[in-house]
């Protein structure tokens, strides 16, 4: 498993805990530390994990709006906590983090969904992020003209 894949997994688990407990914590550091201790005590690249989590939190309102717009059949609060937070990371990387190639963001989200979500999570995440990406490409084409 690559370092960034593991980092995204750790970020998803910390965001899952934060969301599961009602998003009460303003400081996620204790959650992040707990995930590191439990699942990756030897992992040393904490920076990428923090970047992902801080990015998701910074743009959460806009990210959730994207999810709501593109997951039309599912109100945000009815999407499983796992899928919702995988989508948050995926949308953050796809829309707000220019350092991550779009296809990497989508593929990583799908792989995490397959590992941690339900049987249909990979397809669901792929559908939502794929639709966002398709619209991004259309917008880029319009801007070129």
Question: What features would you describe in this structure?
Answer:
This protein has helices spanning 3-20, 29-39, 46-58, 60-70, 81-96, 102-116, 121-144. It contains seven helices and no strands. The chain is mainly alpha-helical. The model has no long low-confidence stretch (mean pLDDT 92). The termini are far apart. The radius of gyration is 15 Å and the shape is globular. 33% of the residues are buried. Helix content is 74%, strand content 0%. The longest helix is centred in the C-terminal third of the chain and has 24 residues, at 121-144.
Sum this structure up briefly:
By secondary structure, the chain is mostly helical. The chain has helices spanning 3-20, 29-39, 46-58, 60-70, 81-96, 102-116, 121-144.
What features would you highlight for this structure?
globular
The pLDDT mean sits at: 92
Query: What count of helical segments does DSSP give?
Result: 7
> Strand count, sense and closure of the main sheet?
none
Low-confidence residue ranges: none
Could you give the count of β-strands? 0
SSE pattern: HHHHHHH
Percent helix range: over 70%
* Radius of gyration from CA coordinates: 15 Å
Strand % is under 5%
Kindly, what is the distance between the CA atoms of the first and last residues, rounded to a whole number of angstroms?
41 Å
Q: What structural class should be given to the helix and strand makeup?
A: mainly alpha
Tell me the overall shape.
globular
């Amino acid at each position: 498993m690559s370092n960034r894949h593991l980092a995204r997994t750790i970020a998803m688990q910390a965001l899952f805990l934060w969301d599961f407990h009602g998003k009460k914590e303003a400081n996620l550091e204790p959650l992040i530390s707990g995930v590191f201790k439990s699942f990756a005590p030897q992992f040393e690249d904490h920076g990428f994990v923090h970047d992902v989590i801080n990015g998701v939190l910074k743009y959460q309102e806009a990210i959730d709006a994207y999810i709501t717009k593109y997951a039309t059949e599912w109100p945000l609060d009815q999407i499983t906590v796992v899928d919702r937070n995988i989508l948050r990371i995926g949308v953050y990387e796809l829309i707000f983090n220019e350092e991550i190639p779009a296809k990497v963001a989508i593929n990583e989200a799908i792989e995490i969904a397959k590992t941690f979500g339900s049987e249909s999570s990979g397809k669901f995440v792929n559908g939502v992020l794929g639709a966002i990406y398709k619209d991004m490409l259309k917008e880029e084409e319009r801007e070129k003209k």
